[in-house]
Amino acid sequence: QVQLVESGGGLVQAGGSLMLSCVAYGGIFSNNDWGWYRQAPGRQRELVATISTGGTTNYEDSVKGRFAISRDNAKKTVYLRMNRLKPDDTAVYYCNADENYSDPYPWGQGTQVTVSS
What we know:
Distance between the termini: 40 Å
Mean pLDDT: 96
Low-confidence stretches: none
Oligomer: single chain
């Protein structure tokens, strides 16, 4: 059973930066494509960034050029570097398997990101 634990969120002013981390306990991390998702209040969860087993990355249009996803297979960790944050980025952020290729693992608790204007 895979357990996902996200961390690194917080309160930041617009224009600031954060680095999120997600550790995957159990399972075989390196065999999965991974994604970062976010859910803002009153909105559906959306996929914002993905990284393949080979390191290919993709981003949702609103975060392109500002967010960077990366992975460390040895540490079973996926990261999301977020720069030039905007109030619209405020959400709970989660990591999970890339929904385009596999069913999700049980969702973790997520990490809250709040961007003040």
